[in-house]
Design a protein that fits this description.
2 helices; 0% strand; elongated
């Protein structure tokens, strides 16, 4: 076990010697930032569009339900007038 740890330490030290941090070019950083900002803007735009579609859909569904309710009420009222309930007594 100690031999494995010693080997890992040597590998780690060797990697630290070989691998040096590299700064990306400024043009790349600016380009990446612009792409990320644009992607976030598009995602936000899609979410806004989806919310608007859902809101309009809910309004339409509510209107349809209201019309159906009023229609059912009128039909039942008309039927009640044409065929009054029989009085048992």
């Amino acid at each position: 076990m100690e031999e494995q740890e010693a080997t890992l330490v040597r590998i780690s030290e060797r990697l630290q010697q070989l691998l040096v941090p590299v700064e990306p070019p400024l043009a790349y950083v600016r380009s990446l930032r612009a792409e990320l900002v644009e992607a976030a803007r598009r995602r936000q735009e899609r979410a806004h569009r989806l919310r608007r579609i859902l809101l309009v859909g809910a309004a339409i569904a509510g209107s349809v339900a209201s019309v159906a309710g009023v229609t059912a009420f009128l039909v039942l009222r008309r039927r009640a007038r044409v065929h009054p309930p029989a009085v048992v007594g």
